[in-house]
Design brief:
275 residues; alpha/beta; six-stranded mixed beta sheet; 6 strands; 12% strand
């Protein structure tokens, strides 16, 4: 009976120990789950805070761009989408698109070189001309804004000045490209016009007008010279007839006829004739 009692007591003790161990394991598991839950909640809170800070900086960047460049278009790349934040479409005075600048802002305590390549990919995907990375922390070998591997890096206080300079460059490049656009086609069209029928007909019309005007002047000159010659002959005949008649009368009447200087010029006075 004593052995039986000890056996039963031992079994009860082992059962209690097993239950205790199981209870301890259960409590440990609950504590571990609570610890993991707390860490996950902390991580999500930190992530949410960082995301909120990033969204605030993105909104502030868009507002600054709209205020300083009212004639350009500022568009969101997409909220909640990892990548560039916004796009500035540069427009000239006529409202024509002259280029695109893509922006991405970072508000972290350390700079990640992977941001550069990622923004370059976003620039190609969005068909932008220039990419600007706005960051609170520069790379180790930079202390102010500059260009790195095809991407411009600047702080939030430098972004407007840098954007203004790049925007001016895009406008100048667009103007030059527009002036050179279809230059070969224009030369071909000009050559075709100069050697075409329309240009030849217009030149012929102008030349014919000059020739007609010249012929008309020449014809008028010939006609006037003919008329002058005819009048000159008629005048000579009248003068000869008048002179002959005056001479005849004077020969008969003698000195009793008054002298007419115009008709007497060139004549020789003879005494016997006067007698």
């Amino acid at each position: 009976m004593a052995q039986q009692i000890r056996k039963e007591e031992s079994e009860r003790t082992q059962l209690k120990e097993t239950e205790y161990l199981l209870r301890m394991k259960e409590l440990e598991k609950q504590l571990e789950d609570q610890r993991k839950l707390a860490e996950e909640m902390k991580r999500k809170a930190e992530q949410g805070s960082m995301q909120l800070q990033g969204e605030v900086q993105e909104l502030l960047l868009e507002e600054l761009l709209r205020d300083h460049f009212p004639f350009d278009t500022v568009s969101e790349v997409g909220k909640g989408v990892e990548g560039a934040d916004c796009m500035l479409t540069v427009q000239n005075r006529l409202g024509q698109e002259s280029g695109r600048i893509i922006f991405e802002s970072k508000r972290t305590k350390a700079f990640n070189n992977g941001w550069i390549e990622k923004l370059k990919n976003d620039m190609r995907a969005r068909q932008a001309d220039v990419a600007i990375l706005v960051t609170a922390v520069y790379p180790k070998d930079m202390n102010c804004f500059g260009e790195r591997d095809g991407v411009w890096i600047c702080s939030f206080s430098e972004v407007i000045a840098l954007t203004s300079a790049l925007r001016h460059t895009l406008l100048r490049v667009a103007e030059t490209r527009k002036a050179e656009e279809n230059k070969g086609d224009k030369m071909h069209l000009l050559y075709g016009y100069l050697t075409g029928t329309e240009f030849r007909q217009q030149i012929e019309t102008i030349v014919e007008g000059f020739i007609s005007l010249k012929n008309s002047i020449t014809k008028e000159r010939v006609q006037m010279e003919k008329l002058w010659k005819e009048r000159e002959k008629q005048l000579e005949k009248v003068l000869l007839s008048t002179s002959g008649m005056y001479g005849s009368i004077k020969g008969i009447a003698g000195a009793s006829i008054g002298s007419i200087p115009l008709l007497d010029s060139g004549e020789t006075d003879t005494g016997p004739a006067d007698e």
